[in-house]
Amino acid sequence: MTVDLAPLWLTARLATVTTLILLAVGVPLAGWIAHSRSRFKPVFETLIAMPLVLPPSVLGFYLLMALSPARSLGAWLHARLGVDLVFSFPGLVAGSVLFSLPFMVQPLQAALTNLPDSLREAAYTLGKSRPATFWQVELPCVRPALVAGTVMAFAHTVGEFGLVLMLGGNIPGVTRVASIAIYNEVEALNYGAAHLYAAILCSFSFAVVLAVHLLRRRTKGGA
């Protein structure tokens, strides 16, 4: 039994691009939330955490409505930037970033919050600025949380279905990722191919969860 590898490669590409963007956006965002004393902090935390409880199809539906060329935002992106995010790979990336954001931000935020204040104060005493303290002192101390967040964000993107189907559709080579390919094979009663796709994703999921547990165990053992 052989299957089309294109959905698997597209899934890996989507997860890789999404994770890189989440590293660039999620790390400083987690640092800001961890240290912020703004009264609006609970609002930001709630907005970031909403994808954890919100059905993916709901987020996908609202993104589809917002980014459609028939809507204001979608029309502006098309007219000004020449970008169409609906039913496209960049659109999947945008949706995946929003949907996987809490998996990157929350572990890192929790680890940064638990760091002692004396660590930052010592860095300030030595003349380090706030940004330098965050990147050179705090972030290395929470490396296990950063690694765990990165791995979980990547894995979560791999497993997306509802958002991908709603926002990207089912275009071969463009938006048909592995989870959509499984759905297609089941609809076609091609259970052998569906089993193969599913087995690959199950093996990947097991490896990811095992890696996170081993990382946490190693961290506790070294504490």
SSE layout:
Layout lengths: L5 H30 L5 H9 L6 H12 L4 H10 L7 H25 L3 H9 L4 H12 L1 H16 L3 H7 L9 H10 L3 H32 L1
Helix pairs in contact: 1-5, 1-8, 1-10, 3-9, 5-8, 5-9, 6-7, 8-11, 10-11
Largest sheet: none
Q: Strand pairing plus helix content: what structural class?
A: mainly alpha
Unreliable runs? none
- Give the integer mean of the pLDDT values: 89
Dominant shape:
globular
Terminus-to-terminus distance:
48 Å
Helix content: over 70%
Strand content: under 5%
C-alpha Rg, in Å? 20 Å
Please trace the helix and strand order, writing H or E for each element.
HHHHHHHHHHH
H/I helix tally = 11
Count the beta strands.
0
Question: Could you explain the architecture of this structure?
Answer:
By secondary structure, the chain is mainly α. It has eleven helices and no strands. α10 runs antiparallel to α11.
In short:
Helices cover 77% and strands 0% of the residues. It contains eleven helices and no strands.
Which properties best describe this structure?
223 residues; mainly alpha; 77% helix; 0% strand
